[in-house]
Amino acid sequence: MNWLSGIADSVALRWEAAGPRSRLVIGALVGALIGMVGLTPKSFFGVPLAWPYVGLIAAVGWGRSGIAFAPMAFLVLFGFAQDASQAPWGAHGLANLLIFGLAALVNQTFDTERTPFLSFILPVVTLFSGITLVWLVASVSSGHIVRVTPMLTAYFATLVVHLLIRAFLVSGRAGSPAQGRLPFNPLYFHMLGHIRENGPTRPSVLASVLDVPKTALSTAAMALQGRGLLAPLRDPDDGRAQLLALTEDGAETAEAILQQDLANMEILLSQLSPEEHGPLLDKLERVVAGIMGDRA
User: Fold this and answer.
1) How many degrees, rounded to 5, is the angle at CA 169 between CA 34 and CA 17?
2) Distance between terminal CA atoms of the chain?
3) Are residues 157 and 250 part of one domain?
4) What are the two backbone dihedrals, phi and then psi, of residue 176, each rounded to the nearest 5 degrees?
5) Taking Cα atoms as reference points, which of 243, 237, 230, 233 lies closest to residue 193?
6) Cα–Cα distance for residue pair 92/137, rounded to 1 Å
7) ∠125-96-26 over CA atoms, to 5°?
8) Which residue range is the domain that position 41 belongs to?
9) Which of 46, 52, 150, 287 is the most buried (most CB within 10 A)?
10) CA distances from 190 to 30, 125, 198 (A)
11) In this structure, are 188 and 141 located in the same domain?
């Protein structure tokens, strides 16, 4: 099973390195693939198998990063694809958007990553709320009470796929995130790293540099402040503006993230000979320089 663990570690490391837009596109492609497979008849020894609601899985996953337009657009598209064969137009899209908003609210209200129990139970409840909403819409549109059993089997299929995706992309990672100081979250890591390198920074600047919605950054900033890693400061150049600065614990955590990144890089580079390291790093520097130049 070492090869499977190695694949999981490699995928998780690359997922961590991907930007927000890349993760959104990858998530949409995975959801579309699962959905297309779900359009084909499935049975096991003559017993029909339930297929997960990919729109709800995407809504819960993307909701962890806060409200943003791009995920909402994908969720509406997923909803239209489901409506084509199962419900009135707009029914599933509405359900997806409502669950997306609920997931964002839940993750903003509760520090799920600090409490493993909440990290597990809240998606369970949120997905159940989504399936219940779909059942209500189907019952109202059809004029009769839809059978509960198929909806329950679809719920458990949805929950299992959600947990598998989350475990594969987040938990299957070499080493403990930030040397055990902070649960895995790419946005948290990038925020702390940027402030470590550049000093106290305005939230709007962080959102622009990291290419994330301001709402998502605000949610992450509140979570990091709740952990005692960030503290707000008044901007000396504009008393109406606020800066985000590292606390003492935040500085230590940011340094731990850097050391973890270096350890992860060693894992990736270990697949190459020492003579191949230099050319690879030179090409990566050119890629990074090009990206930063495009953003400037």
Assistant:
1) 115
2) 45
3) no
4) -85, 135
5) 230
6) 8
7) 100
8) 2-171
9) 52
10) 24, 30, 12
11) no
| Structural domain total, the chain | 2
C-alpha–C-alpha distance, residues 76 and 139, integer Å: 21
Question: Does the pLDDT at position 113 exceed 70?
Answer: no
Percentage of the chain modeled with pLDDT above 90: 9
Q: Across the chain, how many H-helices and E-strands are there?
A: 12, 4
pLDDT at 96: 87
Q: What is the pLDDT of residue 1?
A: 46
CB count in 10 Å sphere of residue 23: 17
Mean model confidence pLDDT for the chain: 77
| Same domain flag for 145 and 56 | yes
Do 149 and 182 lie in one domain? The reply is no
Same domain, 186 and 155: no
Cα–Cα distances in Å, from 153 out to 33, 80, 94, 122, 149?
Answer: 20, 22, 22, 19, 6
The residue whose two tokens read 């909403």 is: 133
- Model pLDDT, residue 174: 42
- The span from the CA of 280 to the CA of 294, in Å, is 21
User: Among the listed ranges 37-51, 84-98, 232-246, 270-284, which one has the minimum average pLDDT value?
Assistant: 37-51
Count Cβ atoms within 10 A of the Cβ of residue 215 and give its class: 0-12 exposed, 13-18 middle, 19 or more buried: middle
Domain boundary (136, 152, 171) is at 171
Last residue of a domain, one of 171, 191, 223: 171
All residues at 6 or more sequence positions from 85 whose CB lies less than 8 Å from its CB, including other chains: 39
* Average pLDDT of the residues in 146-158: 84
Question: Model-level pTM greater than 0.85?
Answer: no
Do 51 and 154 meet the contact criterion of CB atoms below 8 Å apart? Answer: yes
Can you say whether the dihedral through the CA atoms of 146, 100, 108, 25 is positive or negative?
A: positive
Helix (H) or strand (E) holding 187: helix 186-198
> Are residues 189 and 156 part of one domain?
no
Is pLDDT at 176 greater than 60 in this prediction?
no
